[in-house]
């Protein structure tokens, strides 16, 4: 009995010893050199993996933290009507909305076209619309005008003509150019610079040419339009005259002493296809008139044929009357 009790007691102690030693054994296993090396390798690899994305995004982070560049400011459009004396104003950013203030309503309808607008003489300020566009020319101007009798627009054209950086072709109708008003205006221009009329001259930077003529079939040149800077076209029934444009004289409103306005229209167009085709037509019409002017000039300079006077003919001796002829006697 005593021996059995002692054996049982030893078995209980061994079981208790195994339970208490298990954590220590586990601790020893986890702390073996091989396990430690694996852990150190994993720990060393973790920072490398974490550092890799940081290196990739470092430039982007640096770029975003740098001071942003200041964007160039767009200059405000000038609202002045006649900008011919301001070289900083041009048609490079022209928009049809720029002409809203010249309409009776002062604003377009929401359904208005973005590249074509029709203005009405006597209702809209067509005179100032033309000044607004033409005074902003900085590259080129192709013009054919049937009625040319507007001193304001003529002054703008003369300043363009004297600008060495602008190409300009002007075609005028022969019948209208010989009228009293147009002739007086053109005579004044000839005195200002005779070389600009019926003369084609080219320098390194510009071409200027004024030509007076007719259509290809010698009818009137009835076109009334222009293309400015290859961007903006104008065309309609409006002649350049006080009554043709219905010049506004009272604070942007029609009326005043001597006010007259014809029934005319004036369109302003920015549609690229229309502008391109109209440019070609204006050049073609100008070339026709140029050939006509050259032919007239050549005829005027052709030397006159001198007629050589024939020497007076020697009068033949009159033959005697047969009755008076003496016949020899045989």
Short description:
Helices cover 40% and strands 13% of the residues. The protein is built from eight helices and eight strands, in the order ααβαβαβααββββαβα.
Describe, in plain words, how this protein is organized in 3D:
This protein has 330 residues and is α+β, with helices and mostly antiparallel strands. The protein has a domain at 115-300: Endonuclease Chain A (Endonuclease, Chain A), CATH 3.30.870. The chain is built from eight helices and eight strands, in the order ααβαβαβααββββαβα. It has an eight-stranded mixed sheet with strand order 1-8-7-6-2-3-5-4, sandwiched between helices. The N and C termini lie far apart (227 Å).
Q: Could you report the average pLDDT, rounded to the nearest whole number?
A: 76
Given as residue ranges, the uncertain stretches (5+ residues, pLDDT < 50) are 25-30, 48-52, 199-205
How much of the polypeptide forms β-strand, as a percent range?
A: 5-15%
CATH superfamily of the domain at 115-300: Endonuclease Chain A
Q: How helical, in percent, are the residues?
A: 40-55%
What is the approximate shape? elongated
Major sheet details: 8 strands, mixed
Number of helices: 8
What is CATH's topology name of the domain at 115-300? Endonuclease, Chain A
The CATH architecture of the domain at 115-300 can be named as 2-Layer Sandwich
Tell me the number of strands.
8
What order do the strands of the largest sheet run in, or round the barrel if closed? 1-8-7-6-2-3-5-4
Please describe the topology of this protein.
Elements: H1 2-30, H2 33-65, E1 116-120, H3 126-134, E2 140-145, H4 151-161, E3 167-173, H5 174-177, H6 180-192, E4 201-202, E5 207-213, E6 224-228, E7 232-236, H7 242-245, E8 265-269, H8 272-301
Parallel strand pairs: 2-3, 3-5
Antiparallel strand pairs: 1-8, 2-6, 4-5, 6-7, 7-8
């Amino acid at each position: 009995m005593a021996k059995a009790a002692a054996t049982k007691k030893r078995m209980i102690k061994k079981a208790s010893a195994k339970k208490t030693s298990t954590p220590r054994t586990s601790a020893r296993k986890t702390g073996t050199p091989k396990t430690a090396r694996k852990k150190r390798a994993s720990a060393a690899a973790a920072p490398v993996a974490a550092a890799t994305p940081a290196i990739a995004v470092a430039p982007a982070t640096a770029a975003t933290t740098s001071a942003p560049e200041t964007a160039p400011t767009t200059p405000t459009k000038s609202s002045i009507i006649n900008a011919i004396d301001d070289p900083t104003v041009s048609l490079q950013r022209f928009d049809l909305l720029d002409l809203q203030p010249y309409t009776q309503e002062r604003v377009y309808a929401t359904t208005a076209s973005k590249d074509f607008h029709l203005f009405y003489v006597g209702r809209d300020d067509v005179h100032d619309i033309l000044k607004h566009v033409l005074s902003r020319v900085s590259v080129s101007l192709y013009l054919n005008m049937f009625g040319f009798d507007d001193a304001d627009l003529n002054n703008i054209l003369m300043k363009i003509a004297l600008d060495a950086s602008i190409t300009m072709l002007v075609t005028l109708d022969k019948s209208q150019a010989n009228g009293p008003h147009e002739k007086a205006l053109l005579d004044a221009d000839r005195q200002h610079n005779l070389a600009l009329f019926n003369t084609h001259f080219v320098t390194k930077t510009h071409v200027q040419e004024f030509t007076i003529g007719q259509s290809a079939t010698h009818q009137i040149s009835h076109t009334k339009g222009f293309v400015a800077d290859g961007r903006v076209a104008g065309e309609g029934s409006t002649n350049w005259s006080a009554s043709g444009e219905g010049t506004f004289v009272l604070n942007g409103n029609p009326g005043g002493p001597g006010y007259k306005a014809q029934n005319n229209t004036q369109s302003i167009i920015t549609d690229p296809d229309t502008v391109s085709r109209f440019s070609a037509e204006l050049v073609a019409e100008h070339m026709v008139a140029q050939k006509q002017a050259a032919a007239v000039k050549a005829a005027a300079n052709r030397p006159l044929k001198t007629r050589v006077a024939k020497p007076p003919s020697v009068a033949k001796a009159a033959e005697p009357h047969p009755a008076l002829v003496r016949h020899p006697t045989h």
